[in-house]
Design a protein that fits this description.
The chain is mainly α. The chain is built from four helices and no strands.
């Protein structure tokens, strides 16, 4: 088979009877989920950075004490070290609640709708865009 006749693999081909608007809608839903994935990553970054900052306070407290600033070290320990970032919650709880309340539901709904409308096939919109944009006969542009 030459490069000209190659088509995307079946898992990236539109099932029979699936229209353009459905493929576009599934692409928009998938893009929204991907954006949510990025937001979730930013939330994990927030979680890790905040935790690192809190652990870094140990050095600040130690150095303040070594420099003879016990009152200031006590204040950092009392008012900042181990403090909730929102009432009643450390960052890990925010991550857990986001996952359980929003992310997991979003991912499940997207997967179920793809299953109902496109036999579970993923990235149909992108696969068709690749097929339309590739330069046939050139290395690195093959469909598979």
């Amino acid at each position: 088979m030459n490069d000209e006749s190659r088509t995307p693999d079946p898992r990236h081909q539109r099932p029979e009877g699936v229209g353009d608007t459905t493929v576009e809608a599934l692409g928009a839903l998938s893009k929204a989920l991907e954006t949510t994935e990025r937001a979730r990553g930013a939330l994990y970054t927030f979680h890790q950075l905040t935790g690192s900052a809190d652990l870094g306070l140990d050095d600040a407290v130690r150095l303040l004490r070594e420099a003879g600033h016990g009152d200031q070290a006590d204040r950092v320990e009392r008012e900042i070290l181990g403090r909730n970032v929102i009432p009643g919650h450390w960052t890990f709880r925010i991550v857990e609640e986001y996952n359980a309340t929003y992310y997991d539901v979003f991912r499940t709904v997207e997967q179920e709708i793809r299953g109902q409308l496109a036999e579970g096939r993923d990235h149909l919109y992108e696969a068709e865009m690749k097929e339309a944009r590739r330069t046939r006969g050139h290395p690195g542009h093959t469909a598979t």
